[in-house]
Specification:
With 202 residues, this protein is mostly beta strands. The protein has a single domain, classed as Jelly Rolls (Sandwich), CATH 2.60.120.200. It has no helices and 16 strands. Strands 1, 2, 5, 7, 8, 9, 10, 11 and 15 form a nine-stranded antiparallel β-sheet that branches. It has a seven-stranded antiparallel β-sheet with strand order 3-4-16-6-12-13-14, with no helix packed on it. A hairpin with a 2-residue loop joins strand 12 and strand 13. The radius of gyration is 15 Å and the shape is globular. The N and C termini lie far apart (35 Å). 39% of the residues are buried. InterPro entries: ConA-like_dom_sf, DUF1349, UCP022704. It holds the Pfam family DUF1349. This is Regulation of enolase protein 1.
């Protein structure tokens, strides 16, 4: 499935399970099915990577900031709405609003062969603004309660990306333990360039 939305200068394509993606009146909606997730456990030799999760991704050029307000219909622990970056099968990252495990939380996962997992801060309610930025090989994650003042969450690179290589970015839904959840993304915006300062709230 391909989807064009007017806020983005590049087309989006669906990956993984069917997310029933739709766009109407400025709102992108996606569904995660039961026990759908994207995570490569870093511990336990017998553990296998979790099943895939619905993703809707495109390939922007140059430096950019992708922004959306994310609202999650929480039903179970670790249900989440995600801004997602993909470079390879074992080189990708998630910026999530996640029920983790009993309070909405901004959290991140960066996968370089195996996944790490880090919580940032708790959120009141079921919505938060998320932003992923890129310059060269570097990515930055930010979150905001109002879409104006941004809290720095993470700065990283992903193994295997070339200096000018294309990365896929976009949206993902997950429900690792639950029976599924719906996620909406609104106030979607795409801006060229990198933030002037990662830590000053801009």
């Amino acid at each position: 499935m391909d989807l064009d939305i007017p806020e983005l200068p590049f087309p989006l394509r669906s990956y993984g399970p069917d997310g029933n993606w739709s766009y109407e009146d400025g709102v992108l909606t996606g569904w995660a099915g039961p026990r759908q997730d994207r995570f490569v456990p870093p511990v336990g030799e017998a553990l296998e990577p979790a099943s895939d999760a619905p993703r809707l991704l495109g390939a922007p050029e140059g430096d950019f900031r992708l922004i959306a307000r994310v609202t999650v219909g929480f039903g179970a622990a670790f249900d989440a709405g995600v801004l997602y970056v993909h470079v390879g099968d074992r080189a990708w990252a998630k910026l999530c609003l996640e029920y983790s495990p009993d309070v909405p939380t901004v959290c991140t996962v960066v996968t370089r062969g195996h996944s790490d997992d880090a919580n940032s801060f708790a959120v009141e309610g079921s919505s938060i603004w998320l932003r992923v930025s890129r310059t060269g090989r570097a990515f930055a994650f930010h979150a905001s309660r109002d879409g104006e003042r941004w809290t720095f969450v993470r700065l990283f690179t992903l193994a295997g990306e070339k200096e000018t290589g294309a990365a896929l970015v976009g949206f993902m839904t997950q429900s690792p333990l639950g029976e599924g959840c719906v996620v909406t993304y609104d106030h979607i915006a795409f801006r060229p360039g990198w933030p002037d300062d990662l830590r000053d709230g801009s």
